[in-house]
Write a structure and sequence with these properties.
single chain; 153 residues; alpha/beta; five-stranded parallel sheet; 31% helix; globular
Length: 153
Amino acid sequence: PIIATHGKVTPFPDAAAQPRDDSKVLVDLTGGGPREALNPGIEKLARFVNIYAAAGNRPARVSIAVVLHGDATQLALSDSDYAEAFGTERNPNLPLMKKLKQAGVEFEVCGQALTNKGYRPEQVAPEVELAVSGLTAMVNRQQDGYAYIPLFK
């Protein structure tokens, strides 16, 4: 697997439905979680990456884009801003988000949700891009041929 520490998968090399090269996946991540622990949606993203890398009969190329909004907006915060907002040592999601970004996953946060929740664009971690809105980010990706996958948790 590409992400060895998270997203465990079981290979099925003889399964009929295999990961296809050049797939495009748009993940709509809105679910929150315990503020001091890894968000379950981020763990699931690692599984998506590993499924395309190691769960079929051969690795398959995939593009994965993630839009953070709703209760997942806070995942976009830098370590220091997350720690200040939630009384934690750091943002527990950023280490895995960095690995996912290195694996090619793109993260965008909804600017409308960001400001509605009282955060500022300069508080966003470098691993995450700012979108005008989650709606426009999702429409743009779907127009580019991405398959929509909602993740509420």
